[in-house]
């Protein structure tokens, strides 16, 4: 896991090689970049996402300062196995993956579904998580989280009619600013041209949506047990995981910090990547 002294440190996510590690009978695909040593920052990805769905304008600034690891959840992309239908099982997978790499402590950067998984991980494995970045996400039992499937299918249909990427509808407002930000985001996701990941299968997406619906309809958790320093961020008009839930997380996680970006949706951190990346880096290197 260490870099030799004469080996240049890669800080470009587009150029990070894809590797694998096996834990509990599952082979996880992952990419790592940035300087080795110390506590890594592990990125927890969103609904329907593979390794190719991380915005390099978020990952690369973090990797200039920290060892970064991104991974495919079980049954997604190049990772083997079946997608779990509960967030709790996804968190157990994440813990197994991290320990298979030999780490006893990590910082977590999580977006959307990844933020739900991260909450469980931080609660159930408090010694494993040191710092927590939760973006575009909400708590168990959160208002309207169980409607994510409806929003997803609706926006997928809208995108198909205009031959657009569904994320342009799901993550961004449909005003001039949001449309421009959405197209720029999708273009950035295409900067990696070699060693692309396999897209998520329909059955895997359906299992993830089932897990999110269960999360939305479950009993609210005691978030006061999350003692780790936590940074929460979102846009002010998140249609997938309502923005009020970021404020709810902030109220319920002791000492947490909250950043809300105006005129933006679920992908607010991507629309405001120039503003958010330095905030995330400062928090993770504090």
Question: Could you list some keywords that capture this structure?
Answer:
single chain, 286 residues, Rossmann fold
Overview of the structural elements:
The structure is a single chain. This protein has helices at residues 56-63, 87-100, 113-124, 148-161, 166-170, 176-189, 202-217, 244-252, 268-271, 273-285, and strands at 18-23, 26-33, 41-44, 68-71, 106-111, 129-135, 230-235, 257-261. It is 38% helix and 16% strand. The protein has a single domain (13-285), classed as Alpha/Beta hydrolase fold, catalytic domain (Rossmann fold). It starts with 17 loop residues before the first strand and ends with a helix. The relative contact order is 0.16. Strand 3, helix 1 and strand 4 form a beta-alpha-beta unit. An 8-stranded mixed β-sheet has the order 1-2-4-3-5-6-7-8, sandwiched between helices. The chain is globular, with a radius of gyration of 17 Å. By secondary structure, the protein is of the alpha/beta class. Residues 41-270 form the AB hydrolase-1 domain. InterPro entries: AB_hydrolase, AB_hydrolase_1, AB_hydrolase_fold. One of its GO terms (molecular function) is hydrolase activity.
């Amino acid at each position: 896991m260490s870099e030799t002294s004469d080996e240049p440190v890669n800080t470009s996510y587009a150029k990070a090689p894809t590797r694998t590690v096996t834990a509990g009978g599952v082979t996880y695909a992952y990419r790592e970049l940035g300087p080795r040593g110390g506590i890594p920052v592990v990125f927890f990805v969103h609904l329907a996402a593979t390794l190719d769905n991380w915005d390099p304008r978020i990952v690369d600034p973090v990797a200039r300062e920290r060892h970064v690891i991104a991974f495919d959840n079980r049954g997604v992309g190049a990772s083997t196995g079946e997608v779990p239908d509960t967030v709790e099982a996804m968190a157990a997978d994440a813990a197994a993956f991290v320990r298979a790499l030999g780490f006893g402590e990590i910082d977590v950067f999580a977006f959307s579904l990844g933020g739900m998984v991260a909450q469980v991980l931080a609660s159930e494995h408090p010694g494993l998580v040191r710092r927590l970045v939760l973006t575009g996400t909400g708590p168990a039992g959160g208002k309207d989280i169980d409607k994510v499937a409806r929003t997803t299918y609706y926006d997928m249909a809208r995108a198909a009619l205009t031959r657009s990427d569904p994320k342009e509808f799901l993550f961004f407002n449909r005003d001039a600013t949001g449309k421009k930000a959405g197209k720029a985001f999708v273009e950035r996701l295409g900067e990696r041209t070699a060693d692309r990941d396999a897209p998520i299968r329909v059955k895997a997406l359906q299992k993830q949506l089932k897990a999110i619906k269960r999360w939305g309809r479950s009993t609210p958790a005691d978030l006061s047990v999350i003692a780790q320093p936590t940074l929460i961020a979102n846009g002010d008009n998140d249609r997938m995981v309502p923005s009020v839930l970021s404020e709810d997380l902030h109220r319920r996680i002791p000492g947490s910090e909250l950043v809300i970006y105006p005129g933006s949706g679920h992908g607010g951190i991507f629309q405001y990547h120039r503003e958010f990346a330095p905030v995330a880096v400062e928090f993770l290197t504090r």
